[in-house]
Amino acid sequence: MWRFRNRGFVRYIGVSMAGTLLSVLAGWMLSGRNAAAAAFFCSLFWCTLHLSKESRRYQGMRLLAGQIDEILHGNDRPEFQHFQEGDLEILRDEIYKMTIRLKEQAALLQKEKTSLADALADISHQIRTPLTALHILLERLRSPELDVDARRRLLREAGMLLSKIEWLVTALLKMSKLEAGSISLQKETVSMEKFLADAIAPFELAMDIHCKSCAIRGADGASFTGDYGWTLEAVQNVVKNGLEYTPDGGTLTICCEENPLYTELLITDSGPGIPKADLPHLFERFYRGENAGKDSFGIGLALAQMILSRENAVIRAQNAQEGGGQFRIRFYKAMV
After folding, report:
1. Facing residues of 263 across strands?
2. 164 plus 203 within the same structural domain
3. 148 and 124 in a common domain
4. pLDDT at 164 over 80
């Protein structure tokens, strides 16, 4: 039996037998046969009681060792017996807690691994088209018949393609880091007036070239709580999307409103509006709507929603009553 293969248990039996014999001998020498018999039965009773207790304890340890062995060999759902008293049960509960924690860490690592693999697959898929275009441009640039103006035009197109690839790779890596939870967003009070000025600053030159304008209303005195840099990234993606659908000579309107519950941004373009079939899918990664431009990758809005969802904020898309696409962003002042 396994008990007799356990040295500690065998040693305990030997000590118990020696104690019993000593008790019997002491009783015989001091008070005779009756005292020796009484000492024998009392010692036998207590030794049996203690041996039974030790047997149960060793059996519990053997069971616990078997359960740990199952975990090591791939059993993801061990069933620990607990809700009892004793040091062994406390040890079993602690091992169970450690097992749960290790499972959570393994699941997190697997999630990060999957996220990285998906990001790499997305990057390789999306940059294939601009890379193909770059190869074609390079072949044309090798032609000795090109004049200076044609060569400059091709170089300009190649630079634009490289900028698109750089933006795409950067955006996808940001999304991958957000999904993996490896980015910690800061909390600070942000002035909406300065924030919106910074949000539209990168687009001012393009707006001047295409005679577009941006009207900001209600930002004076308003503020919100969030990470300045990452929120700026999200809002700029929404502004960029709105400017793409604003016709030449049109206006992009940004209205700000603050109340005790939230601070709201309402970004409205003066374009044709968002088709109803596209509304449920606008924030899906790589989704390109019916009116999407040829240079659109379909990840700017997905990245914006991913950032805002981690900042106690929400973003919704709709069509304005007066026409044009409209995005509503709310920064809540308390957890919702």
Report:
1. 258, 331
2. no
3. yes
4. no
How far is Cα 290 from Cα 276, in angstroms, rounded to an integer? 10
Distance between CA atoms of 323 and 333, rounded to whole angstroms? 30
pTM beyond cutoff 0.85 = no
The 10s digit of each residue's pLDDT in 110-144 is: 877 776 677 667 667 667 777 888 888 888 888 88
- Burial status of residue 23 (CB atoms within 10 A of its CB: 0-12, 13-18, 19 or more): buried
Same domain, 164 and 230: no
Residues 134, 52 within the same domain: no
* Residue 131 lies in domain: 116-180
Q: Is residue 315 part of a domain?
A: yes
Cβ neighbours, 10 Å, residue 177:
15
- How far apart CA 56 and CA 61 sit, in angstroms, is 9
pLDDT per residue over 74-95, tens digit each? 665 555 555 455 666 667 677 7
Question: Collapsing DSSP states into helix, strand and coil, what is residue 51?
Answer: helix
103-107 contact pairs (CB < 8 A, 24+) = 103/76
Residues 67 and 143 in one domain: no
Whether 98 is covered by a domain: the verdict is no
